[in-house]
Every structure is written in structure tokens, then in C-alpha cells.
Amino acid sequence: MPRHAIPLETVWVSIPEDGLEAYEAAFGAACDTVGFFRDHDTGIWRVEGVKQVGIKDAELAAAIALAAAVSGVSAPLERAATEADGWLARTYASFPEQLIGERFAVRGTHLTGPAAPNRITLTLDAGLAFGTGEHGSTRGCLVALETAARRRPRRILDMGTGSGILAMAAAKLLRRPVLATDIEPWAVRVARENAELNGVAHLVRARLADGWRDPFVRAGGPYDLVFANILARPLCLMAKDLAANLAPGGTAILAGLLASQARWVLSAHRRQGLRLERMLPQGKWTTLVIRR
Length: 292
What we know:
Blueprint: E1 8-15, H1 20-28, E2 33-38, E3 45-52, H2 57-71, E4 78-81, H3 84-93, E5 98-100, E6 104-108, E7 120-124, H4 136-148, E8 156-159, H5 165-174, E9 178-182, H6 185-197, E10 204-208, H7 215-219, E11 223-229, H8 232-237, H9 239-245, E12 246-258, H10 262-270, E13 275-282, E14 285-291
Parallel strand pairs: 6-7, 8-9, 8-11, 9-10, 11-12
Antiparallel strand pairs: 1-3, 1-4, 2-3, 5-6, 12-14, 13-14
Helix pairs in contact: 1-2, 4-5
């Protein structure tokens, strides 16, 4: 008996790092699993997903067109028949344990050896690679969290949670409840599953929400700590709402922006009375730590 009633295919694009986050999100909208792999000689990233042949083709085409418009990076979509085991083997090989900052270790569910000592371990499914800590924006947020945690924030929001990695990191480090929101139902489901896997389901509340427009999100504030690992343009558009919902002395960790976009995003938030505390470069990506 075949393993799949409908055959699988691998779809992929080859892009520079500037387009990685947008295309990663695009593939997540239509594929069952998403991965990304860097050619260390050329610096080119291959973003790929596995999906059933003929399923969600229109959604994928629309998402890729949006990714190209948002990132300014265009790339042809390529397809090939695939065996699921081969794709997973390649994904596992590209996702070893990652040590981030001084406090965190990120490891896939496929790893069986002992976890790194004296670190907070975040376990994620390597077959769903968005928000696994390999991307510079996620790494920057985790490093920023180490410092922000010293203020012992009580009300915490992770907006655009994706895999839930930042919400889980804050919950494990601070032992505080975290509201994790996303506009994608599949991301909310994955964040819930990961919170349970990591033993913080009682602390991480994953909820479908359209940013600050959601009354539940606004009602939970003002927040002492906000993560917004999104993209530069929506970060700028949400600056006024962030300032209105950030507690006095509160910290916001903003990411998903290229180094060339950092000043633009920072200016939007300074106009709302927020000030820069730290700027953390991670390759071509930059994380901003701002305070009210």
C-alpha cells in the first residue's frame, strides 16, 4: 500500500538572505513542512517545502508573489517529485543543536544525545524550520531576551509567534505567562504543540489574532515586554500601537528587518516617544531593543 494517497512534491526557490524570511513565510502558507538550507560557499539559501501534488497551488503562487513584492527578491519556483524520507534526512542533517547567546540551546526532536549543560533547551521539530533559531532575526531576539529578562517583566507578548520559540524562551527563562499571537492558524497550532512539547503549555497561550487590532491583545496590556519578529514595513505601521500598549519602562524587541532597514524602523518608533537601548546585528539582520 502506498504511504500517501496523493503523491508528494518538493517545491523550492534559491534566494539571497534578503528574501529568506518573506519566502519562508510564503511556503508556510501552502506546504505541510518547510525547511531552509544555506550554501556556505555562495551564501545562497534554498527555501523548500513539501506538499501534496496539486494541493494549494493557487495559495502558494499568491504567497510567493507577495514575498517577492515585500522583499524585492524574485526567484522562479521549482518543483520535483520527492520521497518524504529523503527530505527529512536532509532537514535533520542541516539542523544540529544550536547554542545561542549565553543561556539558550535550540535542538531538533530528532537529536537523541544529551542536551547542552547549563542552558535552557528549546526543542523544536526540525521538519518545520521556521523559527528554529538558525535565522539571524530569531537569534537576535534570544540574545536580547537575556538582557531584558533582568527587569523581570510580568506581562509579556510575542506578536507573530511563528513556531513559538520566543514565547517559550521567555516562559522558560522568566517562569511567567506569555501571550503568543499570530495571524496564521497553522502557526498558532504549531506554537501550541511546541509549548506542550517543551513543558510550558501552562504558561504560553497561543491565540489567533491580527496584531494590535485584536481587542484581547490590547486588553492584556500594557506589556512589560513585547517581541515583534515580523518585517520592517508592518513594524513601522504598528509603532503607534506599540507605544500605546507598552508599559512605562517596558521593553520591545523588534526583528525581521535587514540592517539597511534598521534606521527606518527606529525612526518610526522614536516619533512615538520610544528610545533605542541596543542594536544587535546578526549577519545581514538587525534586532532593535527599544524602551518606553
